[in-house]
Amino acid sequence: MPLTSTTATSTTATSTTVGPGRARRADAERNRAALVGAARRVFERDGYVRARITDIAEEAGVAHGSFYSHFAGKPEIFAAVMAEVEEEMLHPGPALTAAGADPAAVIEAANLAYLEAYQRNARLMALLEQVATVDEAFRELRLQRSAAFLARNARAVRRLQRAGLADPALDADLASLALSTMVSRSAYVTFALGQGPADVGRLAATLTRLWVNALRIPPAADTDKE
Predict the structure, then answer these.
(1) By Cβ atoms counted within 10 A, which residue in 10, 137, 144, 157 is the most buried?
(2) How far apart are CA 146 and CA 67, in angstroms?
């Protein structure tokens, strides 16, 4: 009996000790998420230069001092906001090598997903372009984001080439650079600068046709025969 009693007491003490720790971590995670969400709204409303940490903390509903428990300053929380944006925009899309998949339809779906995500995040994407011109850290962040897109699209081009669905003479990395830049700059001009067509579907279809023609992807009927 004494052993059982001691064990029970120990277990209870451990539970009591761990419980508050977990609660504190949960509170910290909620506060951090609230700060990032608030920062997004403040950056979109006020821009990067005019955004203030005080405004972000107030928007998040947390004490001003709580901000510094999670972030060293404005650049760090802006980077956290952009990390969430990148996660949303770096959409893998359907597999180009899926059995029976029409490459053109898959490319169009991926282009449309990217354009819609860019449109939702247009204000932040414009801010990143601006900040990257004067801040080396954000220039590096932008380059890393661009490299992730280029690498993904280069892999897609190589898969198409191996499947006999794209021009084998093309350099996959250079093709990805040219075609990805075409899509990203079209999105920037259309949504960040407010120029270009308002119809996202039409823009996606046009960009897809240029992708297909550049890679010399055969029509769907020819692909089905193979």
Answers:
(1) 157
(2) 29
